[in-house]
């Protein structure tokens, strides 16, 4: 199948923020062949390529993107069962939450706390999606990807992917190099659900024995809905990219310094040897921002201070203005800079680097 190249396609409706201008060229890629022929077209035309999944972790510039946007639509889910494990291979264009639902229905443990995260299967390894004590890196076996550097299809193991908190090979040292085509996960048959986070634990306080995977999935979706972290049709509070800032991970020493300024109540979670994770939402609130705070049509969600939302008609510049104000006040009060979680597309890169929104590398 050949790629059907479209021109000047609006990107805003393809993102959860609902913001941004058009793509100069746009391709829906439902197969590996279309991915390969699109890359060839982009090479011939000397165009930069952006790979789009569900658009749920993305802020597109108001003037759009002058290159080619390829939306990954590869579907298909294969199941293989072993003794106590099930191996599932899913096309990168499959909807992630649908896959989680299917796993839970089959009584397969390992992704139940990742229920309700929007976006595609192909997006999950990019920032090592995680929530409520689970991360996709715990169950990911391998990633089938097109390597734009060597012009070949490769199979990357979990180790190759170099997962850490909200980070992987794909969004750090090999940014833009790989196009994820398929992801393989290994799940535990009839396994116990992960009930590691206080929010989830509270849901089952009065429950005797382990809850079922389906109950945990439902609880996680309930918790997410309360925080506007579940996409609900027509709810302007979830016109966002989820968390706009990452939870900071600091050394014990940095955390001790933070406690001196912020007081003993500042949240701390374990984050590996010698490292502590703290809560960006707490820092934002204690820097003086409350839920619903707005700057024109850009606002903090009325349910969660970590989500910046488009109240209706906001531009990317409106969102950045609000993000600058939040980051600036947190930095002044607590002495360190919050790092954004979404990907920025179509912006003036030197300006983003100068303002510290992206790294120079
Ligand atoms: C309401 C809400 C709640 C959220 N909650 C969470 C949460 O709890 N935890 C969490 O981790 N995230 C969360 N997110 C962020 C987002 O859902 C995830 O990061 C998701 O995995 C992004 O996938 P996507 O397909 O939408 O990627 P996109 O937004 O389309 O793209 C994001 C990045 O991934 C790249 N990418 C996407 N697909 C591919 C592919 N096939 N190959 C190569 N690169 C690709 C893009 O190029 C881009 O750099 C939330 C977002 C929203 C809107």
Q: What does this protein structure show overall?
A:
This protein has 361 residues and is α+β, with helices and mostly antiparallel strands. The chain has three domains: 6-72, Uridine Diphospho-n-acetylenolpyruvylglucosamine Reductase, domain 2 (2-Layer Sandwich), CATH 3.30.43.10; 77-226, Uridine Diphospho-n-acetylenolpyruvylglucosamine Reductase, domain 3 (2-Layer Sandwich), CATH 3.30.465; 236-354, Uridine Diphospho-n-acetylenolpyruvylglucosamine Reductase, domain 1, CATH 3.90.78. The chain is 25% helix and 27% strand. The chain contains nine helices and 21 strands. The strands form six sheets. Strands 6, 7, 8, 11, 12 and 13 form a six-stranded antiparallel sheet that branches. It has a four-stranded mixed sheet with strand order 1-2-5-3, with helices on one face. The longest helix has 19 residues, at 316-334. It is globular. The model has no long low-confidence stretch (mean pLDDT 95). It binds flavin-adenine dinucleotide (FAD). Flavin-adenine dinucleotide binds at residues 16, 50-58, 72, 92, 117-120, 122-124, 126-127, 129-131, 170, 179-180, 229, 231, 238, 240-242, 343. Flavin-adenine dinucleotide is lined by residues 16, 50-58, 72, 92, 117-120, 122-124, 126-127, 129-131, 170, 179-180, 229, 231, 238, 240-242, 343.
Residue-averaged pLDDT: 95
Uncertain runs with pLDDT below 50, 5 residues or more?
A: none
What's the overall geometry?
Answer: globular
Would you count the extended β strands for me? 21
CATH class category of the largest domain: Alpha Beta
In percent, how helical is the residue content? 25-40%
Q: Main β-sheet, in a few words?
A: 6 strands, antiparallel
Helix count from the secondary structure assignment: 9
Oligomerization: single chain
Strand content: 25-35%
- Distinct ligands, ions and cofactors found in the model: flavin-adenine dinucleotide
The end-to-end span amounts to 36 Å
């Amino acid at each position: 199948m050949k790629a059907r190249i479209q021109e000047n396609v609006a990107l805003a409706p393809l993102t959860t923020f609902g913001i941004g201008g058009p793509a100069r060229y746009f391709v829906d890629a439902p197969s590996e062949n279309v991915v390969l022929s699109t890359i060839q077209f982009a090479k011939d035309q000397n165009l930069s390529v952006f790979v789009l999944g569900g658009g749920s972790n993305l802020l597109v510039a108001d003037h759009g993107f002058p290159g080619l946007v390829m939306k990954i639509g590869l579907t298909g889910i294969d199941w293989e069962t072993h003794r106590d494990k099930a191996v599932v291979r899913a096309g990168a264009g499959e909807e992630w939450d649908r896959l989680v639902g299917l796993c839970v229905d089959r009584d397969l443990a390992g992704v139940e706390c990742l229920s309700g995260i929007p976006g595609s299967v192909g997006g999950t390894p990019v920032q090592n999606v995680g929530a409520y004590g689970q991360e996709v890196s715990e169950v990911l076996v391998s990633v089938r990807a097109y390597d734009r550097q060597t012009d070949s299809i490769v199979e990357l193991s979990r180790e190759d992917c170099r997962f850490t908190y909200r980070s992987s090979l794909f969004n750090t040292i090999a940014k833009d190099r790989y196009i994820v085509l398929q992801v393989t996960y290994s799940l535990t048959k009839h396994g116990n659900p992960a009930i590691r986070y206080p929010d989830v634990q509270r849901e089952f306080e009065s429950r005797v024995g382990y809850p079922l995977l389906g109950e945990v999935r439902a609880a996680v979706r309930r918790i997410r809905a309360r925080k506007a972290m579940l996409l609900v049709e027509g709810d302007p509070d979830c016109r966002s990219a989820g968390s706009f800032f990452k939870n900071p991970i600091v050394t014990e020493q940095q955390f001790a310094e933070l406690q001196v300024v912020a007081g003993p109540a500042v949240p701390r979670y374990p984050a590996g040897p010698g490292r502590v994770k703290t809560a960006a939402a707490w820092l934002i609130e204690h820097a003086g921002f409350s839920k619903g705070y707005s700057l024109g049509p850009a606002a903090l969600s009325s349910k969660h201070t970590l989500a910046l939302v488009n109240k209706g008609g906001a531009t990317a510049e409106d969102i950045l203005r609000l993000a600058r104000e939040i980051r600036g006040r947190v930095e002044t009060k607590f002495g360190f800079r919050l790092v954004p979680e979404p990907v920025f597309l179509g912006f003036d890169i030197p300006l983003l680097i100068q303002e510290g929104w992206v790294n120079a590398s």
